[in-house]
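For reproducibility, we list the full input for the S-adenosylmethionine complex.
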Amino acid sequence: MTRDTWQVFDFAATLEKVRPFTMVPTEALVDLARQVQAVLTCGIPGDFVECGVWRGGAAFLMADLLRQAGVRDRKVWLFDSFEGLPPPEEIDGPAATEYVKNTDGPWYFDNCRVSLEEVQRTARGLGLASYTELVKGWFNQTLPAYRQRIGPIAILRIDCDWYASVRCCLDNLFDQVVDGGFVIFDDYYTFEGCAIAVHEFLGERRLSHRLESVVGRSKGYTCYVSAVLRKGNASWYDLRQWLDRRDLALQDIAALIPTEDAFILIDQETLRGELGAARQAIPFLERDGHYWGPPPDDDTAIGELERLRQSGARYAVFAWPAFWWLDHYAGLRRYLRSNFPCVVENDRLIVFDLR
Ligand SMILES: C[S@@+](CC[C@H](N)C(=O)[O-])C[C@H]1O[C@@H](n2cnc3c(N)ncnc32)[C@H](O)[C@@H]1O
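The corresponding predicted structure, in tokenized form, follows.
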């Protein structure tokens, strides 16, 4: 089911709410929030799963966005030993050995040990208990036992540090991630074992999914904070760019055009569904309030534009997927440019004031 996600999400409030319960860097959390938004906007089916939850913050971020969007037909699964990390192996590399030795280090957190009861209490305190399901135990036992029950997965977040754990998650759950769904590797750049498990798994299966990096900043330096792949070789970067552009275009419209003003919207149906029922966005061409197809020629386009203007349309809004109109209908472009001020012109919208 697709959702009107632009208007319902308050990312900042969610980030603030979950921040005390996660060690995941903010940039990676923002990326995760956008993935949840992408899943809901594009109707990518499936539940959300996090393997390795610690205090639960990243999983709670996904759950809080479901709550905000009023989504009741998905949930977030939280898998963890709730007894901390198992010991690393040689394959996990020197950073893993260092982590285990450095018990006074700022990232040791008692070997990531947090009890099930504590995470359950947090879920209740945040009002997210009914959006989450917590499963206690070692992955090699819990994942095979639960994978049938989970069913299709839209987002699989793997945050369990070591080679054996990452490999176990992929072996058990990767096949359930749907086409277009996301697999996130939180430790891909941190621990060698995680990267080896990812490449080994993809190589053995002869899968060509591309990994994309999520970039953050730390102490003034750019650094990689996680890696993500989309099943089906669809690019997350491209989809995220599209979502960013769409959200900015919707903000532009909200800032420029008062809610009560009718306007012509030429958008290849990119924005209309997200504008909300209160908005009077007239399709073009229009008959009885419905889209009637593109105009056959410039004269029809200009005639129809004038008809709508006389009946109260105050702006003509072209969204970027329909920018080609202004090349194709050169007569319409000349008519608009010579008769009406262009009040917005950026990479997402061109708006003429018809008043
Ligand atoms: C780095 S922490 C997770 C951080 C968390 N996602 C967050 O938002 O801050 C890693 C977690 O993975 C769990 N873990 C690692 N390997 C595991 C395994 N094989 N089975 C169960 N839990 C495991 C640990 O108990 C720990 O809570």
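The longest helix spans residues 236-256. The chain has two domains: 5-234, 242-353. Both points were considered when choosing residues for closer inspection.
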